[in-house]
Amino acid sequence: MTAKEIHSESENIPNSKDWSWKFWQVVPLYPYGRRRTLRQEIVKDSIWTFDQIQGIFYVVVPIRMTVVKLETGGLLVYAPVAPTPECIRLVNELVTNHGDVKYIILPTVSGIEHKVFVGPFARYFPQAQVYVSPHQWSFPLNLPLSWLGLPRNRTSILPEDITQSPFAKQFDYAVLGSINLGLGKFAEVALFDKRSQTLMLTDTIVSIPEQPPEILQLDPYPLLFHARDNAAESITDTPINRMRGWQRTALFLFYFRPQVLETVSFWQSLLDITKAPERSRQALFGLFPFRWRENWRQAFEKLRGNGRIFVAPILQTLILNRDPQAVIDWADKVASWNFVRIVPCHFDNAIAATPHEFRQAFSFLEKNPQYAVSASLPEEDFAVLQQINNILQGNRIIIGAKDKI
Asked: pTM for the complete prediction?
């Protein structure tokens, strides 16, 4: 299938108005005002995930909401996604069978790509109580939560004492942070459903599937765009190209500019545009300033680590190392829960993982790790992130990293 056929097929799918997200300008990420939603049942009659996509310049990743059935009837929502008509209809199908949405959790303070959806989502469920992670902030002005769109009379900070929350019988939670970054703060709420032994996380832990996630395959154009080796190649839909595009996208997402990626000079990229078989707006007018080295696949395999769970390089380099002791204390608490799966907000879904494996993922913060350290990521791929760190520290935008504990 050619690029034009892919675009035409996407445009002609019925009910595309169901994908409308009218506030996309607030956080203008791809796919902007049209977002598909994919619902999956993770634990039968107990846990469902709702995947959408987001990205920049066709570098896209799943963003995920998790819905849990309450023992007392009704539903709890962790990290809402864009409340498109399709998304709300899929949630209401669960409401019909399992009761109203009673609680909505915002589990982050810095993730605007999560925060932006909470207020609009909550308006569809006026009976739901909204709970947010402590230490909320906004930039450039620190505004009240109601000014950020969260409902004034039914938004509360998660209690420090879990027993004071109305869902303490079924859930436990632990708040990481807040970690002072200088310009702002980082915090994340780990939520544990005791009944299903499921741990919900936002950004701290990920696992990379070898094949592209199903939500990305509903519109494969971004994957096919990055499957090419140069601007002269056509954008063609094949299973191999989808996989190639996904694996290269993962390298972009985690390293920004991995060592196996060469950037083409500005003048060369302009010359290459004349060779591009498609120069439409969708194809970014033929611009493709990248060249992948032959060993790019080996770099992906090292990153993926056979599907292991790990902490993303950007968190390792720019965030969690600002307060290693707080992170380790949080990881120890989370590792005390007897979960059998992890549902993060990005990348792979419903990851089979043990508390030991979870705790092991944070060993990079320790001088003498308590747990055996799994294969570490190549230091050379951290070069761009380290440069960003040095620039941000040099301009006093973020504070310096602390020593390992």
From this structure: 0.92
* pLDDT at 57 exceeding the cut of 90: no
Which DSSP symbol is given to 206?
A: B
Tell me the pairing of strands 198-200 and 185-193: antiparallel
Phi–psi pair at 317, nearest 5 degrees? -90, -35
Through-space distance between the first and last CA atoms of the chain, rounded to whole angstroms: 53
Q: What pLDDT sits at residue 179?
A: 92
The answer for residues whose C-beta is within 8 angstroms of residue 256's C-beta and 6 or more apart is 384, 385, 388
- Please give, one letter per residue, the 3-state secondary structure of 342-400: EECCCCCCCEECCHHHHHHCCHHHCCCCCCCCCCCCCHHHHHHHHHHHHHHHHCCCECC
Strand 341-343 relative to strand 290-292: parallel, antiparallel, unpaired?
unpaired
Cβ–Cβ < 8 Å for 313, 254: yes
What DSSP string runs through 149-173? T--GGGEEEPPSSGGGSTTTTTEEE
Residue with tokens 């409340």: 83
Q: Strand 341-343's sheet: what is its strand order?
A: 171-180, 185-193, 198-200, 341-343, 351-352
165: preceding bond cis by omega (within 30 degrees): no
**pLDDT attached to residue 1:** 56
**CA atoms of 137 and 156, how far apart (whole Å):** 14
pLDDT tens per residue across span 296-343: 999 999 999 999 999 999 999 999 999 999 999 999 999 999 999 999
